[in-house]
Amino acid sequence: LIHNKCLDTLDLRENNMGDKGAVAVSKMLEKNNSIKSLELVDNRIGSVGALAAMAKCLKNNTCLQELGMRECRFGSRAMVALSKSLLINTSLLELRLDTIPTNVGKMYLIQAFKSNTTFKHLSCKRGKHKILKNLLDAPKRKKQRRA
């Protein structure tokens, strides 16, 4: 898949890949220039190391536009790593999660969304994230230049 130029959607949901599989997918995405949509739903990805690898790949990947990570069971440190990568990533448009762990994770995600001009949509399946969801789903305003 590293050198594949045709595949634009990779659906790996419910493959039981775990953390080692997530690291392998992350390494592939660092070099792949065709995959625009990746589904990692329900794959028992949960360690900080696996999600740190995914965050690192998002810093370098310029093609991925949609990332589905529902039912991946990660905590606040992994959410922070993922959010920090969104400060740098210029291609991801949509991130799909179950819930956002802790207020620290929410804070970093809000910061990433405000700074990243391409990230447009966050989908949260569970949890009480109305304020965050409303903020993230609101259209972004262009910053006005001062004269």
What would you report as the Rg, rounded to the nearest angstrom? 15 Å
By secondary-structure content and strand pairing, the structural class works out as alpha/beta
How is the largest sheet built, in terms of strand order? 1-2-3-4-5
Largest sheet at a glance? 5 strands, parallel
Structure description:
The protein has a 5-stranded parallel sheet with strand order 1-2-3-4-5. The model is unreliable at 141-147 (pLDDT under 50). The chain contains 5 helices and 5 strands, in the order E-H-E-H-E-H-E-H-E-H. Strand 2 (37-39), helix 2 (48-60) and strand 3 form a beta-alpha-beta unit. Helix 1 (18-31) runs parallel beside helix 2, helix 2 packs parallel to helix 3 (76-88) and helix 3 packs parallel to helix 4 (102-115). The protein is α/β, with parallel strands linked by helices and 147 residues long. It is globular and about 40 Å long.
Please supply descriptive tags for the structure shown above:
single chain, 147 residues, alpha/beta, 5 strands, 12% strand, disordered C terminus
